Fold:
Amino acid sequence: MNDLETYAVNVSRQAREAGLKLAATHVESRTRAIHRLGELLRASVAQLLAANAKDVETAKATNIATPLLKRLILDATKIEAMALAVDEIAAQPDPVGHVIESKTREDGLKIEKIRVPIGVVLFCYESRPNVTTDAAALCLRSGNAVILRGGKEAFHCNQVLGGLIAQSLSAAGLDANSVQIVETTDRSVLPILLKQDKYIDVVIPRGGESLIRAVVADATMPVLKHFTGNCHIYVDRATLPVEDVVKLVVNAKTSYPGGAVCNAVEHVLIHRDVARRVVTPLFDALAAKGVEVRADEAAKSFIPGAKDTTQQDWDEEYLAFILAIKIVDSLDEAIAHINRHGSHHTDAILSTDESAIDQFVMRVDSASIMINASTRLADGGEYGLGAEIGISTDKLHARGPMGAFDMTTYKYVVRGQTHLRD
Structure:
């Protein structure tokens, strides 16, 4: 066994041992650790900014993509936001031991279905230092041990954060191995960790599609996936006033700098009956925000200044200020298009027709359906979950934004008084 393999196996085994203890820990200890982490973040601003400056300097030298660089950069305001997110998680109800179902048979046998931690989580992610503290706090809230494999671009900052997390665990009397930061930037360690299914229960990758597909290919334990965010807005024939349509689409595309976020709208489908009223003002508003608009042949008859679409466009997650418009003849065509080309992340309908809305909700196969609302609202914080560990486009076992309750599974507890099977 080489040194890297020895390291990965030891980290995984330590996480398993810590997780078994953490699952039996009283909620007050876990809450105290999370609270302490928030305090330490506020007390360590200078140290965090110094570490982040090293990461940013290195990232710039390697010509990191602009969206990743923006997510990497910290300032005092962002660190305060990290602390506030941790505080919110500390204030959440404890999911561990929550009774999902309970029934008592006529013979007195009581059967309960209760929430329990998943066990050990391997979390792989890129760039954003705030994800480190979000994930640590969410896993502590839900009683899970976690191995955090951050990207090399945030290595120095994550090492400092790892020290703060260790201090918070120690202050609460918890095993320091409950949250471990991988201490090497060597990419070879990840495939080894992904083979430790003896110790690790689930892996959650959060980052670009290439990272997620690599994890899926190598992992021997279940993977909670979020491949892409190819989000749609369908403008129904019985739609909202044009100014509201424009406002919602522009928000869904441009409210995050550069549009490089998974819940930004990428494609807008417009019913032919309202195209004449909607397409031109929508194009003008998007262009004014610097969005490159692409359009199918029917839409281009209203906006000749738009670029042509290709068949590839409809499967694309642009992660940029680019948006494609398509004219459809019916609700059925819109739904079929979304189910064929979408990524099952978030899709919206703008309509005043309750029948059309009901059809859209029932038939579009996505984790979040928005009705007369921006796709950008598909977020753990907006859903009242506090921070999220990710947005799952899978169906098992969690779907959509994942908070602390989504980081649990369940067990049956059966209470009897010398009950026997007939």
User: Anything to note?
Assistant: The mean pLDDT is 95. Residues 116 and 246 are 45 Å apart (CA to CA).
